[in-house]
Amino acid sequence: MRLLLVEDDPMIGEAVLDALRAEHYAVDWVREGAMADTALQSEDYDLVLLDLGLPGRSGLDVLRSLRTRRQTMPVLIATARDGVADRVAGLDAGADDYVVKPYDTDELMARIRALLRRSAGRAEPVFSHMGVTLNPATREADVNGEPVSLSAREWAVLEPMLQRPGAVFSRSQLEQKLYGWKDEISSNAIEVYIHGLRKKLGADMIQTVRGLGYLVPRQ
């Protein structure tokens, strides 16, 4: 999952960035409304964590523009503005949820997971295919009932493919699930993680589509 963090406070931003990466999300962090607009028009995100009090352009303006462009990814407002009118304005502008600073990090992560599940059309956090079960809420995985340990990046590669059996994911698409803008990407990173997943899940779990990418078969 790739998230956009829009937060101008450096201390809050660093703390949230660390918490999100600990949950295995790829995160881009911007500190101004104009930069958020640029990012949202040039990259695909699974969720936006949006502050309202930004320098230059307000978070509310960013949100309105995003919805005007018919971009439908979930938006979680995280702000110090705790008035009822502020909450109503944010939700009416198209936010999916609203949390007030200072917030508990565990609650913030739970709200993010809930929005991502809802966006993916899954009411339940656990999903299975071909004997492999992933629980995004607990980050537990098993194969035919036996627990298996996946690294953060192995999980990030596997999850989108397991959610969409039969869909081909290019190496570039999978890299976007793993890295932010400034992260250095080795040329064979995806191949390394695919190899590790095949060893843990079985050689037939992930198939190579020559010249296109990788897929988890429908059956």
From TrEMBL:
Domain OmpR/PhoB-type: 124-218
PROSITE patterns hit by this protein: OMPR_PHOB, RESPONSE_REGULATORY
SMART domains from the UniProt entry: REC, Trans_reg_C
Taxonomy, superkingdom: Bacteria
InterPro entries per the UniProt record, alphabetical: CheY-like_superfamily, OmpR/PhoB-type_DNA-bd, Sig_transdc_resp-reg_receiver, WalR-like, WH-like_DNA-bd_sf
A Pfam short name: Response_reg
Response regulatory domain span: 2-116
DNA-binding region: 124-218
4-aspartylphosphate PTM positions: D51
Protein keywords: DNA-binding, Phosphoprotein, Transcription, Transcription regulation
Annotated CDD domains: REC_OmpR_PmrA-like, trans_reg_C
PANTHER family the record matches: REGULATOR OF RPOS, TRANSCRIPTIONAL REGULATORY PROTEIN TCTD
Name recorded for this polypeptide: Response regulator
